[in-house]
Amino acid sequence: MSAARGQRAAFRRRQDLFRWVVVTVVVLFFLAPLAGSLDFTTRDAGGHRSTQTWSTLLDVGAISSRYPDLQTGFLASAGLAVLTPAIMLLLLVPTMTWVRLRVPGASRLVEFLCLLPLTVPAIVLVVGLTPVYAWVTYFLGESTIWLAFAYVVLVLPYAYRSLDAGLRAIDVRTLSEAARSLGAGWLTVMVRVILPNVRTAVLSASFLAVALTLGEFTIASLFSRTNLQVAMYLLGKSDAQISVAVGLAFLVFSFVVLFALSFAGGQRGAVAPLARLRRPRKEPS
């Protein structure tokens, strides 16, 4: 009996050791490049420590005057991170709800169409969208913000999976028929009945759309538009330290935005972490 307990304890110790080794390797894999980038941006031409790069980056006036493409790219990426999830949700949520209520037999076709961009390389997508963007440029102008239409195509597979899981978790037909029997219009059904019940799925789809939009480079570069990634690439040819510093700052900014989205996607009735810590513990009887 004691020998079996000893073997189980030794097995648990080996598992704990293996777990810590894996976690340490993964942390080093991600943090080592970041530490190297931070070290690179804090050295001057003579190899001495300097904060000149970060001081320049924090000077908005200097950035606007010396690196206009960087400011343009940042504003374009911020606009794309707002417009792309908005178009995606306006397109997918009503369509998927309508298919479930009226034509459930077409759900396979909608799923196929939404997952199709996964099989299309970015260069093929750009070639296919070039005639479309000729008309977009003619009617709406050459602003980078209109890349949101192409980005919506890119995020369709991931957003569809998230929204489909959310809609499968609720009885859409019963909820909508109950709301309609009480006199609600379809807009009220969507805004006050369906969306609150799939709030977590909507936030997850928005989370994925924002993450993809903030990191996209290929389509913007091939369409000769300047988002933040393209601006960083162009800046790296003339000032590598500023380009790397912008990359680090943008990584922190993206992490904060995505963390805020994931935090907002918590359950409505869930207790906040700080409130949970403040909750008094029950004394054992």
Summarize the structure.
The protein has 285 residues and is mostly helical. The protein has a domain at 69-265: MetI-like fold (Orthogonal Bundle). 78% of the residues lie in helices and 0% in strands.
Layout of helices and strands:
Elements: H1 2-41, H2 52-58, H3 60-66, H4 68-101, H5 107-115, H6 122-140, H7 148-168, H8 172-181, H9 186-197, H10 199-215, H11 218-222, H12 228-236, H13 240-264, H14 273-278
Helix pairs in contact: 1-13, 2-13, 3-4, 4-7, 4-10, 4-12, 7-10, 8-9, 10-13, 12-13
Molecular structure report:
The chain crosses the membrane at residues 17-36, 74-97, 109-129, 135-158, 201-223, 244-264. It comes from Pedococcus badiiscoriae. Residues 74-261 form the ABC transmembrane type-1 domain. By secondary structure, the chain is mainly alpha-helical. The chain has a domain at 69-265: MetI-like fold (Orthogonal Bundle), CATH 1.10.3720. The protein has 14 helices and no strands. It has helices at 2-41, 52-58, 60-66, 68-101, 107-115, 122-140, 148-168, 172-181, 186-197, 199-215, 218-222, 228-236, 240-264, 273-278. The longest helix is centred in the first third of the chain and has 40 residues, at 2-41. It is flat, with a radius of gyration of 25 Å. The model is unreliable at 269-285 (pLDDT under 50).
